[in-house]
Amino acid sequence: MRHYHSALGLAAEVRPAQPVTLLRPHAARRAARYFVEKFPGTALYAVKSNPSPELIRLLWESGITHFDVASLKEVRLVRANAPQATLCFMHPVKAPEAIAEAYFEHGVRTFSLDSHEELAKIVAATNGATDLTLCVRLRVSSGHSKLSLASKFGVSVEDSAPLLMAARQAADALGVCFHVGSQAMSPQAYADAMALVRAAIVQAGVTVDVVDVGGGFPSIYPGMTPPDMASYFQVIKTHFEALPISYSAELWCEPGRALCAEYASVVVRVERRRGDVLYINDGAYGSLFDAAHVDWRFPVRLLRDSSVKPVPFSFYGPTCDDMDFMRGPFELPADVQPGTMSRSACWARTARPCAPISTASSRI
Ligand SMILES: *Cc1c(COP(=O)(O)O)cnc(C)c1O
User: Fold this and answer.
1) Mean pLDDT across 254-258
2) Taking CB atoms and a 6 Å cutoff, what residues make up the pocket around ligand 1?
3) Which of 43, 109, 294, 299 could anchor a disulfide with 35, C-beta 3.0 to 4.6 Å?
């Protein structure tokens, strides 16, 4: 892998005709250390946020010992790159074959579920194992978040008591987990969710050993400046300590975005300008999925000096589909012309890894 001091250096030296993903290991290391030192419990990296082997190794070396995996492919990937890591299979709908391989071949003991069917599946696929940590996923509001995770998974508090009791019977350790939605813009999201956790525990009258507050920890994007991360940790700690749970209960979280958002960016080239729309060489089918499909406004920067005032632009990606469109607005100097390089933060939300043509690393 080539190393450059800056993105500007790469753009000037190589003038890449294809998108280049730039890795910023120091930023992921810094984020990992922050969670390891400041979060009042254990932080699991949500691998689907950026399933890159280099990042997994780097997070492990920086003190992240637990990984939230969502597929068999992620189980195998983390096992191969961090053999000693603790893996937690936190997708509430799994294939029986995936559960069995995870349990018997990769030492996975923690599984999440949100239905009696999934509980029966886990018990059967592990041959009635007695060493399981089972986390019941509660449905909570995504009201404070920019990207909802509220409809797909989770049992409602009203329906949770029978499931918590059944999971308690089957589990060595019982957990309750939730996800407040991604990019939660207020710590209140966790306070509200913890109130639901409390209600569920009281209704079911079960002993809970793990409370997992999920992901949702925000990063900074144009037009989205969240409160300080420390205020999130404080709210979570206060509400965790007030829960009716065993004294030795553990607190977990599953940051994805907060650990990887600053790790990678992509250098693209402007191929054509049409008014305030720029045709660039990456887009909806590549590294910029979120910019196209959920209107995410990644930070962008022109890779040359310009004192011209920034104005709003939209982008078209390289395919022929109208859908390959990124509305933005992305603020760039008004004199952008074809051939100029610009750099955009890249954050792959999907399980598809960024598919860079080549990678390089840079310090800034
Ligand atoms: C996506 C996901 C995460 C990570 O969410 P972020 O908002 O990126 O922190 C954590 N847990 C689960 C179960 C997820 O699906």
Assistant:
1) 97
2) 46, 48-49, 68, 90, 179, 182, 214-217, 254-258
3) 43
How far does the centroid of ligand 1 lie from the alpha carbon of residue 232, in Å?
Answer: 16
* DSSP helix/strand/coil, 251: strand
Measured from the Cα of 259, ligand 1's closest atom is 9
Quote the domain boundaries for residue 180.
Answer: 26-259
With a cut of 70, say whether residue 360 has pLDDT above it: no
Domain count for the chain: 2
CATH number of the domain within which 347 lies: 2.40.37.10
Amino acid at 150: A
Q: Residue 256, SS3?
A: coil
pLDDT band, very low/low/confident/very high, at 177 (cuts 50, 70, 90): very high
Q: Indicate if 50 and 190 belong to the same structural domain.
A: yes
Which ligand 1 atom lies nearest to the CA of residue 149?
Answer: 15
pLDDT at 246: 87
How far does the centroid of ligand 1 lie from the alpha carbon of residue 74, in Å?
14
Mutate to test the pocket of ligand 1, among 39, 44, 68 (most ligand atoms within 8 A of CB): 68
In the block, which residue shows the tokens 């696929």? 125
